[in-house]
Amino acid sequence: MWLCVVAGELKKLLTAETGLQPGEQRLIFRGKERENGDYLDMCGVKDRSKVILMEDPSSRERRAIEMRRNAKIQTAHRAISDVSMEVDKLAEQVSAIEKSISNGTKVPEVQITTLIEMLMRQAIKLDGIAAEGDASAQKNLQGKRVQKCVETLDVLKISNGKVKPVIVTTKWETFDPPPTTAHWEFFD
Length: 188
What we know:
- The chain has helices at 7-18, 40-43, 57-102, 109-127, 134-162; strands at residues 25-29, 32-34, 52-55.
- With 188 residues, the protein is mainly alpha-helical.
- Residues 9-54 form the Ubiquitin-like domain.
């Protein structure tokens, strides 16, 4: 059975049983670790020989590091997604203001300024997110969206200042009450 079996092949067979990848396994025979290219029969392994399989201690550390890294990536994705949803809402408000001004309606300047401040808060949140890889690309995309909205609002603020407000006046007419007569006639 052990004739011409390579230690690396045995590790592959044991992956299903142990859940450990071949690189995470160590095969020990007669107190010595056997390398992937070692032929087990050449090492003296025969039927009923005792071969010890151990988990490589460094693989545990690598898995723990990988799990922490994945948790950080997921946290970054969630934080960026939260900012993205908020930016979506604020972008709708920017569009509404843009539509109002293009229709000739003057918008209170405080409304534009408040919206710029809200967008800048989202930019600060984005800046505080540690991201790498795909999350970094998403972070940059959201940052550009915020910047575009703020730039649009800056232009709208100028346009809004040029809008002549429509003033509706009503000329009220007043009527004098009919004169009262001080003279009363009495009938008997």
